[in-house]
Amino acid sequence: MKEVEFNLLEEPWIRLLRPDCRVEEVSLAEALYHAQDYRDLAGELPTQDFALLRLLLAVLHGVFGRVDASGQPGEITSPKEAVLRWKSLWQLGHFPKKPIGDYLEKWHDRFWLFHPERPFWQVPEAAIGTEYSAAKLNGELAESGNKLRLFPAYAGAGKREMSYGQAARWLLYVNGFDDTSAKPKGKGLPSTGAGWLGKLGLIQAQGKNLFETLMLNLTLLQDGNKLWGKGCPCWELPERRGGERIQIPLPDNPAALLTLQSRRLLLYREEGDKVTGYSLLGGDFFPRENALAEQMTVWRTSQEKKDGPIVYLPKRHDPAKQFWREFPAVFSQTADTRPPGIVSWIVQLQNPQDGCLDRRSVIHFRIVGVAYGDKDFFVTDTFSDGLSFHAALLDELGMRWRRLITKEIRFCEKVAGALGFLAGDLAIAAGGGGNSAPQAARERFYYEIDLPFRQWLQDIDPDWDVEETEESIRSWRAKAQQIARSLGHQMVFQAGNAAFTGRWVSKEGQKGKKKEEKVFYSAPKAYNIFLASIKTIYKEKGGA
Description:
544 residues, alpha+beta, Topoisomerase I, Chain A, domain 4, 4-stranded antiparallel sheet, 16 helices, 19 strands, 17% strand
């Protein structure tokens, strides 16, 4: 076998989606040169696509952090200059080939998947690490040596080996989302936790094609207003980092952060251009507290000790929650949360003085994430979701609407709670314990209300006058209540005859009283309480 083989700048390995929904594999260089011709990345998992997106963004930062759209050298020295450079690229509608080609040619030798000294995204020192098969490398399988899936997505040779291109895609995925199952080889080494991307509540802006998606996420300013430090992606490091579990300073530039080597990896291959496994060690890490240079995550506040400092931590997404239920945390500054840097960047781009983005256009955001089990020891699920609305909702003039949307989400949470109480009371009235019924009822409500809420959110025009705004909110509340009442009605009729008849249930007395109290539960009573709750919710301060 050749010592130097499969250069990612020339060989096809990145899966992209054509406008006609065909999937093609192209090289890294072709993905950038023709990004405007593809709708999106089309890897095996959304999380894999996110890791690939960050790689492409790191290349763009390496290029356009140093030269302008015409290829003329020049560091970005002011926020105004950063926005103007971004605008010039956006107006082209495609990435200029020459500056990207010059950059990739300079670093061509750092993109060999197999190389004796600098294999891409790998280090030879990882050979002493924990060894895994190709089935563990494949995120669609994620099998360890002693826990096999009953119904795997691959079988036979598909589990034992993979092509070079497929291995390259999963190499990025494992680096970002690896679990904590691998044990250190050295003694007394710190815990690095899951891969960096696995610790985050990941979010990206989404365009009409891959070029627009890359541009919208190309944050040339930190949080939309601060200059970055000098860019240095991992392939530009003069010496590779091969040590196990190394704590490094928080990177001050996006290129370094986007190419963070959370794991030390080394692929194993056999004749026939097949990868059969890999070895792994813990890699670079830094404290996640106040790591605000990371632009693609949601943040929450935390205070470990009563008198201790308040810090920001990345907030993972809840796979059981629709994205719109996180709207307040993602798109509004609150006492407990901080918007992602990518959101602040989009707000900056739609500043009328700069004229980069039309604030009246519809913008789309996507979230992805990995759910782990048992202290991040293994992956239990991967998930993604998206949300579309007018970009103007994000700026200063959209603040009033953000408050109104947040209020409606809170009302939905209370309505879901009322349906949960109804389900519990009906279960008790029918003779059951009612333990699982409330959660099922809440989930059913969110399922039924999901598409209507998304449509209402997308239809909102922040420039509506007072009368149009009030009409929109009245219409939405009527829809939400109609859905809730309809579900409640169904639940009552499905409760059965025993629930209609009802029964007395012994309850513990109030605090300080030893005598038990008896409470009567019946379907009609429970439904009347539910209807009254709905009215109360929407008559609260700020309600209807």
